[in-house]
Design a protein that fits this description.
By secondary structure, the chain is an alpha+beta fold. The chain has six helices and five strands; from the N terminus they run H-H-H-E-H-H-E-E-H-E-E. Helix 1 packs antiparallel against helix 2.
């Protein structure tokens, strides 16, 4: 993937032009690899981040219908293009910017005892705003208590529990010796 960087901007995202170029480059590579017809590749690349996440979230059906499996987004799917403060960790004080939560979750995902971190989309009630989540899943060998300690204190989940809850959700691979840890913010 091409790495786009604007030398006059600060991390973690840099300027909007560099960020958009990087996101479009990433998604073109992903869509191209999927053997989509060229017109679908162009249509997907031309989508705004909000259109892209809306399409992804509704892949299994209407996310607001309780019979629809909950979308389990990768960190990149949920956070790339997300500038909506309160789309995640909304009850934390102060409410963190999405890029701060994104970096913290990427740090957790990079641990040797973690294979994945997913964002479970909880609500899609306003088509003009970013999707909302109060639930993250950490696929790990660690205990729920240990996972809770990995979060910065101001953004720590209210509850962490080992194992899937009773909610129907999209499938996520869990390798042998690993288990899901449910992280929930009230």
């Amino acid at each position: 993937m091409t790495s786009w960087k604007c030398h006059s901007c600060q991390p973690p995202f840099g300027c909007r032009q560099a960020r958009v170029a990087s996101i479009v480059s990433f998604h073109l590579a992903v869509v191209s690899a999927s053997r989509c017809p060229p017109q679908d590749v162009i249509r997907y690349a031309a989508m705004t981040p909000l259109d892209r996440i809306t399409t992804r979230v509704n892949r299994e059906g209407d996310v607001n219908d309780s019979a629809t499996p909950r979308p389990m987004l990768t960190l990149e799917e949920f956070f790339e293009g997300n500038q909506a403060v309160g789309s995640v960790c909304c009850n934390c004080t102060p409410t963190p910017e999405p890029f701060v939560v994104y970096q913290m979750l990427k740090d957790i995902r990079s641990r040797k005892d973690v294979v994945d971190v997913r964002i479970q989309v909880t609500m899609f009630d306003d088509p003009e705003s970013w999707r909302y989540s109060d639930t993250d899943w950490v696929i790990t060998t660690a205990s729920a208590d240990d996972v809770k300690e990995w979060f910065e204190q101001s953004m720590a989940p209210d509850e962490c529990t080992e194992g899937w809850d009773g909610t129907e959700r999209e499938s996520v691979e869990v390798p042998d010796a690993f288990h899901p840890v449910w992280c929930w913010w009230d």
